[in-house]
Amino acid sequence: MRTVLLTGLSFVLTGAVIGNAYYQKKQFYPSVVYITKSNPSMAMLYIQAFVFVILMGKLMRKVFFGQLRPAEMEHLIERSWYAVTETCLAFTVFRDDFSPRFVALFTILLFLKCFHWLAEDRIDYMERSPIISLLFHLRAITLITLLGILDLYFINHAYYSTLVKGASVQLVFGFEYAILLTVLFMAFVKYILHTLDAQNENPWENKAVYLLYTELVLGFIKVVLYLAFMMIMIKVHTFPLFAIRPMYLSLRGFKKALHDVIMSRRAIRNMNTLYPDATPEELQAGDHTCIICREDMLEFSKKLPCNHIFHTSCLRSWFQRQQTCPTCRMDVLQAPRPQQVPQTPPPQQQQPPQQPQMPQNLFQGFAGMPPIPGWPPQQPVQQPGTSGASTTGTPATPTTPNAPGSGTHTVSATGTHPSTTWPTAVPNMPPFMPPMFPFVMPYGGQGMPLPPTRPEGLTDEELKNMEGQERQNVEARIQWLRDIQCLLDGAMILIQQYNTVASQSSIPNINLSGTPSNNTPTDTNNASSSSREKSKESSPVVNNDRDLVKDLSDLEGATGYTAYRRNDTHLGRSNTRRT
Amino acid sequence: MAGSALRRLMAEYKQLTLNPPEGIIAGPVNEENFFEWEALIMGPENTCFEGGVFPARLAFPPDYPLNPPKMKFTCELFHPNIYPDGRVCISILHAPGDDPMGYESSAERWSPVQSVEKILLSVVSMLAEPNDESAANVDAAKTWRENRMKFEEIAAKTVRKSLGI
Ligand SMILES: [Zn+2]
Ligand SMILES: [Zn+2]
Asked: 0.90 exceeded by the pTM?
């Protein structure tokens, strides 16, 4: 009602303006001149033109869309706001060639944009309306054709005017219409797919796949267009601020499409190759309704690793959105290799048991050590009477203060025999051990040997290397844990030696049974020999991928790797949703 | 045919009419469009919304049940988990991935296991027990937390309004 009133008012005012001019000048040309010279009259005429545009829009809308649904209206208004804001921003860039013609061109652009959006929405609606009338097809086809012709015309116009007159505002129009053309093409493809789908009696499984790929290709084209536009604009004019938001959106859309394609391909491949078809017995046994479509599963169903059964086609369309089990949300991309993800692998097991080769030179390096005959098999030498006291007490506190640059280890065994200290040079202590770590081994009673928690001793770069979830970060963490292991091994050797010496000179032993799993004395030789071998390696610790995979899975929990990876999949999933 | 979404919605509608859950009525606005539903939700007993009848609209996406519907109360409802414009903000209506509030576990989110009935039952329990941690209506959450008397007063007013008194 109000719009009718306003429209009427504008017509009346326009009539008044023209009538006034004609009344004053009596002739046609003088009145035209009078009107163009008079600012209020011109303003009135511009408003009238605007009203005409709106009326035209309404007419076109009636012709092509009929009544708009509330959702479409909402969508249109929301998008128009952004478009108007961006147009105003664009005006600031091209304020030099600001003219009525220029405003008119932008208005036409906005106008056509609205129709593209409406066409998009309307064609999306096809999928959910049970009956599609002939009128709908007629409207859709004429609209798409008309918009396509207009887009092409404007692109062509922009192209030639740029060729003839050089870069101008036509550049913006050219790109805008090119983008609109991609939108229109997408709508067209959707229209064709929906129409074909509607002809079929059965649901068409591959439709979603085609849609996904079309989206991917068009997303790529859009991104390329926007990037080219950015580059040219920066070169010719200034940074096109008004194109930032749509460019960001198209980048995001492309990334999502790419991610969707990759993840869903992977999940569907898994489904086709890894998961078994559900047997009739399994279908009979349980509730044989597919939870996705709520229809009976008679055939063509697959069983996921979590034992949930779905229609193959339902599962496929679900995997195009998310790669989880619909019922229990198990991540299907994680699941196929469950044997490689042990639950709580102790980090000490990272080094595979090796041949018990006794590193002789390791012990020759200890100054003043007596030769130890048949050391490995005879370890540990324990004296039952004192072992209890030594585990719970504090006799074993081997500290290895490793001053920067000095390769000297000092073992001071406090407790019953505090005076026994060996200032020993250990040439075969791990050379890759970062020498700047002042290192204290907190061996209390039966406590675990805690890793050195002194991050302030690390350089920023090393800390940075260990953060994150990239492969090299995990490798850095593994390296760090290995360093710790080597230090532990070194300490173990010193304790062993202390025990040997002590057993010979009948002083209490250090009981090692309280120390963690693999560093029990029987294993020490293995661990130390392996650490020695490691220490000889100048090549990176991780030699091949299989090693790394094993290491990674072993280190779960120790490095926080699990948590990071879970996070990762969660983040990844956030992109999977199709809107 | 128009696809599995329509068939599933029809199945759910049939299920809802055969075994209607207590305090809930729901169905398509008209038989031509199964993707727009209207629901009537009774205020749960022994809460400040008791006795009220609240109309809401559900809009289903074309790929339902792969994506959740949108739900919006068409009456005024002052509640921590309902936006001032009527949109309902509960985790079951969010696809895993989009997390407007940032602290919902994906286990409570939408998946094809859920259904219209489960959504409406969740809404009923949301009416009974507002979750003021992920507030959609900050005012309501604040009132609910700090001035329960006033919250109940407003609720009683909406109940009367919903009955047309
Ligand atoms: Zn199914
Ligand atoms: Zn499952």
From this structure: no
